[in-house]
Design brief:
CATH topology of one domain: Arylsulfatase, C-terminal domain
Number of strands: 4
Mean pLDDT: 87
Radius of gyration: 22 Å
CATH superfamily of one domain: Nucleosome assembly protein
Distance between the termini: 64 Å
CATH class of one domain: Alpha Beta
Strand content: 15-25%
C-alpha cells in the first residue's frame, strides 16, 4: 500500500478536528434541550403523581396490567408482590454537568415475599447504579427473588441488561399509566 502524502494527512486531520468540534457542539445543544424539556415535563409529572397517589391501589393495578411488565415478570411471584405497591415513580434529573440520572421509587406494603419498604434505585445514563436502597426478601423466597421484577431494587443485582430492561418497563408504566393492557 502506498504511503499518503504529509499534506493529505494534515488536511484530513484538520477536517476531522472541525467535524469533532461541530459534533461536540451539537451534543451540548441536545443535552441542554433535553434538560429543559425534562424540567418542564418533570413538574407536570409531579403534579400528576399527587393525584394518582391519592387513588387507592392505582400503581398496583397499573404495574400489574402493563404488557411491558407482564413480559418480563415472574408469573408466580410478581402478580402477588405487585399488589402490595402503594406508590411508584420514575424521576429523571439532569445534573449540573449534564448527566442524566433516573430514580425509581416504590413503596411496598409487607407481603409474603418482601418486608414493607421504601425502595429506590438511581442509575446514570450508562445504567451504572448511583444509589440503591436494597430490598429485604422474606425467608424462603430465594427462588422468587432471582427472577422477580422487584430484583431491580436488590443492591446485589448489577447486570446492566437486567437493570435496563426493568427500568424501560417501569418508565413505560410511569409515562403512560393508562395504557395498561385490558
Amino acid at each position: 500500500m502506498a504511503a499518503f502524502s504529509e499534506a493529505l494527512l494534515k488536511g484530513l486531520a484538520t477536517v476531522d478536528e472541525e467535524v469533532k468540534k461541530i459534533n461536540d457542539e451539537e451534543e451540548a445543544v441536545v443535552r441542554s434541550k433535553q434538560a429543559e424539556f425534562r424540567k418542564q415535563v418533570g413538574g407536570l409529572l409531579q403534579e400528576r403523581q399527587k393525584i394518582l397517589d391519592a387513588e387507592p391501589n392505582f400503581w398496583a393495578k397499573a404495574l400489574s396490567d402493563e404488557q411491558s411488565i407482564i413480559e418480563i415478570r415472574n408469573g408466580t411471584t410478581d402478580p402477588r408482590a405487585l399488589r402490595a405497591v402503594k406508590t411508584f415513580a420514575v424521576e429523571t434529573n439532569v445534573t449540573d454537568d449534564g448527566a442524566i440520572r433516573r430514580r425509581v421509587r416504590m413503596t411496598l406494603q409487607s407481603n409474603i415475599f418482601v418486608e414493607s419498604a421504601e425502595l429506590c434505585r438511581v442509575v446514570d445514563d450508562e445504567l451504572n447504579t448511583v444509589e440503591c436502597s436494597g430490598i429485604k426478601w422474606k425467608s424462603g423466597t430465594e427462588k422468587s427473588k432471582s427472577d422477580s421484577i422487584l430484583r431491580f431494587f436488590d443492591s446485589a443485582v448489577d447486570d446492566k441488561e437486567v437493570i435496563g430492561e426493568i427500568l424501560d418497563a417501569f418508565e413505560v408504566v410511569y409515562q403512560n399509566p393508562f395504557n395498561a393492557s385490558p
